[in-house]
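We were asked to recover a plausible sequence for a given structure. The inputs and outputs are reproduced exactly as logged, with field labels preserved.

PROBLEM: sequence recovery
POSITIONS: 677
GIVEN STRUCTURE:
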């Protein structure tokens, strides 16, 4: 997936029940959980606590999760629907080709007895290929082959739209090859960071031991891999800098790119990965390839063999004997995220099918849950919010008329994709074999890698989706200039036909507005209506925009989370801009949709209060300290409490709705409140 695609929710927010839960005798408003409200809290002091406080107490994190929230509840409900589809497909695989593929894949994944009996045999041919390397001249072919299998080593190569010619797919070469979440994990000096590096080396050593090395050799291999990854991390770009599309766009002739690391046999690499002929490509981080060149010359061949082998095995741990699977969870699940238990096997197998055959599985999901009616209802709300954004743009006082005109033109060119693709993906070339869990996983990844690689040199297909239909998420793609809402998120708590307009606008309306605003955040605003990286701003307007964005950077950087770690206001800037703009647009659209009407009070809550509660409650979430720290350091989304309180404190509409005094914590006031759109 392109680095520029920003889901509105973290991948870790996936998991369990339905929106309205039973909290005893709490009164009901369709679409809201009044029993979740902490009546002892003052909404003007901490709105997140008020909207979610009782829910937070009543919904502890399940032992197989690191975070548990409203997204998780819906994702878990979706997962159960997929579970039933797959159980039926596994038991009766013969109805059609897609049905058989998903059933055979799932049955193979669930067959732990066969996986255990095979040991490392399914992956041994790949390990033998790595061990057969005779010298540096063999590196390129092995890396190319591993990349086809999705193994994260040395760097990344895929396809993507040319930032400045967005109708054309080109090759994309980028940094990669790290086992820890991002580069700064290799260099931070606090106690937690040092412990993480220590635990990572121990994890690698355990994997080497399970692969057959003795204790001393395993420790030596692990330390060598850590040293190599640290060197790669040193020449990598940090996650915050990568948010600037200009910083990761360097179109080069193929020969220019190959000269950055000329000891690497690029012709053998491109032959191994089966890339089409290309004259040029985008090199996201040229300094990474320059910095990797000395390593290609200096690192012993045995270190490369160890590095390739451990990443191959660790990446396929779920399809290897239990000791590999459990060890992978112990580090990446238990230590890094704080989850106490591994998810039950069927849940993980459902996720694997969704990962490798997601549009085949998604077709059956859509038939059960969504359909054409749901698409039309959602599209109507999208049009209302787009109209609100046009009014907002035309009313701006800080933007000059020429730039304002260009902004409206871009808004009109945004494409809306709702629910599921018009054309389903063809998996006929993907071979799935019942009883071959690891082979299915490798072939599934190779199918997807090849699908992406073969796009190079061809026109961009703007009808394709990055997310599968059951996904509880949404995204805006700046190179396509489109907003995408999978069927998986177009359900309660985000949208319900039974809920009042104010509730739907506060929930899914805020999500729609969020994605629209991404087209005009610090990243999206650098792309024009055609999806090209193109400066369509006057210097005066860009300066005014940057000043407003800095307000968000400062506001969110002040929020402090687990272990004293602060939000990174620069890393989260795009999402914070979208959160703030999204709820404001939803509010404007609601008012326009009601055409001057004010809905009566329900259970003592005004229409406006219900609107804000609907927004606040979609973010109710408990998380472990470990995963909170991980997200604070790596994720472009702020933590849920900060997403809610950061937004409402900037809105005078919220202050008015709840009668907050000027000095209340949830009122930043005219002098300090942040607003771009």
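RECOVERED SEQUENCE:
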């Amino acid at each position: 997936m392109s680095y520029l695609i920003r889901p509105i929710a973290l991948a870790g927010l996936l998991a369990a029940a339905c929106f309205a839960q039973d909290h005893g005798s709490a009164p009901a408003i369709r679409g809201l959980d009044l029993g979740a409200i902490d009546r002892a809290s003052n909404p003007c002091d901490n709105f997140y606590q008020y909207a979610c406080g009782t829910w937070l107490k009543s919904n502890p994190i399940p032992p197989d999760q690191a975070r548990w929230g409203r997204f998780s509840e819906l994702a878990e409900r979706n997962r159960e629907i997929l579970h039933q589809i797959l159980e039926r497909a596994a038991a009766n695989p013969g109805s059609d080709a897609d049905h058989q593929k998903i059933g055979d894949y799932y049955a193979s994944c669930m067959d732990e007895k066969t996986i255990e009996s095979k040991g490392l045999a399914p992956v041994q041919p790949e390990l033998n290929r790595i061990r057969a390397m005779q010298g540096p001249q063999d590196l390129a072919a092995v890396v190319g082959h591993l990349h086809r299998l999705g193994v994260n080593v040395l760097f990344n190569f895929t396809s993507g739209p040319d930032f400045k010619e967005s109708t054309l797919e080109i090759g994309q070469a980028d940094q990669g090859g790290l086992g820890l979440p991002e580069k700064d994990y290799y260099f931070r000096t606090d106690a937690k960071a040092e412990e993480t590096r220590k635990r990572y080396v121990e994890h690698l050593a355990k994997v080497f031991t399970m692969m057959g090395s003795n204790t001393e050799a395993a420790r030596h291999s692990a330390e060598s891999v850590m040293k190599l990854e640290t060197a790669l991390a040193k020449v990598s770009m940090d996650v915050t800098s990568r948010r600037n599309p200009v910083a990761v766009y360097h179109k080069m002739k193929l020969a220019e790119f190959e000269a950055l690391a000329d000891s690497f046999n690029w012709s053998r690499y491109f032959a191994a990965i089966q890339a089409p002929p290309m004259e040029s490509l985008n090199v996201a981080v040229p300094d990474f390839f320059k910095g990797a060149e000395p390593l290609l010359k200096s690192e012993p061949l045995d270190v490369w063999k160890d590095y390739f082998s451990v990443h191959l095995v660790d990446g396929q741990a779920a399809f290897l004997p239990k000791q590999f699977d459990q060890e992978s969870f112990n580090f990446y699940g238990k230590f890094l995220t704080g989850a106490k238990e591994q998810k039950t096997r069927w849940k993980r197998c459902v996720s694997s099918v969704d990962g490798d055959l997601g549009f085949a599985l998604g077709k059956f999901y859509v038939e059960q849950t969504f359909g054409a009616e749901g698409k039309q209802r959602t599209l109507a709300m999208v049009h209302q919010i787009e109209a609100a954004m046009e009014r907002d743009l035309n009313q701006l006082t800080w933007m000059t008329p020429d730039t304002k005109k260009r902004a409206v033109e871009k808004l009109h060119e945004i494409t809306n994709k709702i629910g599921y693709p018009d054309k389903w993906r063809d998996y006929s070339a993907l071979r799935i074999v019942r009883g071959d869990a690891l082979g299915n996983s490798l072939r599934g990844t190779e199918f997807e890698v090849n699908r992406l690689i073969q796009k190079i040199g061809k026109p961009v297909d703007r009808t394709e989706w990055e997310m599968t239909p059951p996904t509880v998420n949404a995204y805006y793609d700046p190179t396509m200039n489109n907003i995408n809402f999978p069927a998986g998120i177009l359900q309660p708590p985000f949208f319900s036909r039974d809920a009042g307009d104010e509730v739907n606008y506060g929930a899914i309306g805020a999500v729609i507005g969020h994605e629209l605003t991404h087209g005009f955040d610090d990243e999206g605003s650098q792309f024009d209506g055609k999806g090209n990286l193109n400066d369509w701003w006057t210097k005066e307007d860009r300066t005014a925009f940057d000043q407003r964005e800095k307000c968000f950077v400062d506001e969110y950087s002040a929020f402090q989370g687990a272990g004293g770690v602060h939000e990174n206001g620069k890393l989260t800037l795009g999402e914070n801009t979208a959160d703030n703009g999204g709820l404001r647009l939803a509010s404007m659209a609601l008012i326009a949709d009601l055409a001057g009407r004010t809905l009566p009070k329900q259970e003592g809550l005004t229409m406006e209060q219900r609107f804000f509660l609907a927004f606040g409650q979609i973010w109710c979430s408990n998380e472990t300290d470990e995963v909170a720290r991980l997200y604070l350091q790596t994720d472009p989304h702020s933590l849920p409490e900060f997403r809610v309180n950061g937004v409402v404190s900037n809105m005078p509409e919220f202050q008015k709705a709840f009668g907050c005094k000027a000095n209340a914590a949830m009122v930043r006031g005219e002098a300090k409140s942040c607003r771009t759109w």
